[in-house]
Amino acid sequence: LTAAQSSDAILFFAGEEAILSGEANSRGIIDLPGIQTELIQELKKTGKPLIIIVMAGRPLAIQQELEMADAVLYAWHPGTMAGPALADLIFGDCSPTGKLPVTFVKGSGQIPLYHYHKNTGRPASKSDVIHIDDIPRNSKQLSLGFKSMHLDYGIEPLFPFGFGLSYTKFQYANLTLSDKVLDLNSTISVSADVQNIGNFETDEIIQLYIRDRVGSITRPVKELKGFEKIRLKPGEMKTVNFKIQAVDLKFFNGEKYVTEPGEFDVWIGPNAAEGLHAEFTFE
Predict the structure, then answer these.
(1) Per CATH, which fold does 170-282 belong to?
(2) How confident is the model at residue 173 (pLDDT cuts 50, 70, 90)?
(3) What are phi and psi of 243, to 5 degrees?
């Protein structure tokens, strides 16, 4: 703490040892082990910029630490060149470009949570969510309705699948479909303009998601169907194109792979929770 008080900024390396994750090494509580959070609380009191680098083998529940940090870099368990790589990112020689390959939950009680889950019989929207601390006293037991949500965590994860920030910002616009109807012999081109509206040249990973609204068996609310990595200079804009064919709509119905007619949603965006939306029909 004394060293932190005399520093310009604080780099706090948090996380868990390799032995704590992996096959046959499960944890019931997935927060930072030990007294790391308490130390972060004390470091926050110094008023110095606090950068947390998390080295862990799983998505940890770091909501509390996230609120205290000025920046968080999730490094996972990197290899022998982790030191130079992290130094390049922290000091701005390179910009982070990675996207999360998993969904980060707010706590272990939110598990399982993933972008391609099946819809529930009583899905909740953001307007339905009421936090446990905001429930009026003496409310009747059934007064909140019957929507699927956590009263403490809500309905959103800490970070959605595909999420990732960089040292710049990107703007998505002009989602266009070449056709509104797809059949077994045709192709739909889905495109969007992506512009770097920040001051740092770096990469962005653009993601394509679709949803089959109705199927002979229940279908996921969203499925990743493609992604493309592009590099943009400050102010530069590029048009990203994806192709959708009947084969991209196939699913296993318990007996065989099929493609069923119906209505579909399509998104192009930076992660599973955000994006430009359009619709098309498969006949």
Answers:
(1) Immunoglobulin-like (2.60.40)
(2) very high
(3) -110, 135
Amino acid occupying residue 270: P
Q: What is the mean pLDDT of residues 117-143?
A: 84
Q: What is the pTM of this model?
A: 0.91
The backbone region for 11, taken as left when phi is positive above 0, alpha when psi lies in -120 to 50, beta otherwise, is beta
Within 8 A by CB and 6+ apart from 224, the residues are: 115, 116, 161, 162, 207, 208, 209, 272
Cβ proximity of 124 and 131 under 8 Å: no
Q: Where are the beta strands (DSSP E) in the chain?
A: 10-15, 50-55, 71-74, 170-177, 181-182, 187-196, 202-212, 223-232, 237-245, 251-252, 257-258, 262-271, 274-282
Do the domains 170-282 and 2-90 match in fold?
no
Domain range summary for the chain, segments of one domain joined by +: 2-90, 170-282
Residue 209 predicted with pLDDT over 90? yes
Of 214, 272, 210, 264, the residue nearest 242 (C-alpha): 210
Rounded (10°) CA dihedral 150, 155, 161, 164: -110
Q: Rounded to an integer, what distance in angstroms lies between the CA atom of residue 170 and that of residue 207?
A: 13
* Token pair for 11: 């780099």
What's the CATH code, domain 2-90? 3.40.50.1700
The whole-number pLDDT of residue 29 equals: 92
Confidence check: pLDDT of 145 > 80: no
Residues 6 or more apart in contact with residue 78 via CB below 8 angstroms: 55, 85, 86
For residues 51 and 90, give the distance between their C-alpha atoms in angstroms, rounded to a whole number: 9
Model confidence at 147: pLDDT above 90:
no
Identify the band that residue 283 occupies on the pLDDT scale cut at 50, 70 and 90. very high
